[in-house]
Amino acid sequence: MPQLSLYLDDATMNLLRQNAAEAQQSLSKYVVGLIQRDNEGSAWPEGYFEQVCGRLTDPSFVVPEEPSKPLDDIVLFA
Predict the structure, then answer these.
(1) Which of 26, 56, 59, 69 has the greatest number of beta carbons closer than 10 A?
(2) CB neighbourhood size of 19 (10 A)
(3) What mean pLDDT is predicted for residues 43-66?
(4) DSSP-assigned states of every residue in 1-21
(5) Where are the domains of the chain?
(6) For residues 41-60, b (16+ Cβ closer than 10 Å) or e, as one string?
(7) What is the per-residue pLDDT across 27-50, written as a single tens digit (0 to 9) for each?
(8) Could you name the CATH architecture of 1-49?
């Protein structure tokens, strides 16, 4: 199994030890869990767009009109 060495300041190491102890896990298992959880959270949940897109029911929301000229030609700040 591959190994990894980390250099942490004392405060960060103490926080890591405390969090691992509260989770009742070894340091290695706790860090592996953090990495896996971080990687899993990087995508939208399955079916998200199908459930959300087109579901706005706020009657005050209106689709804005198309601009009269290309967006590249619009000057926002002179």
Answers:
(1) 26
(2) 14
(3) 82
(4) ---------HHHHHHHHHHHH
(5) 1-49
(6) eeeeeeeeeeeeeeeeeeee
(7) 999 999 999 888 776 677 888 888
(8) Orthogonal Bundle (1.10)
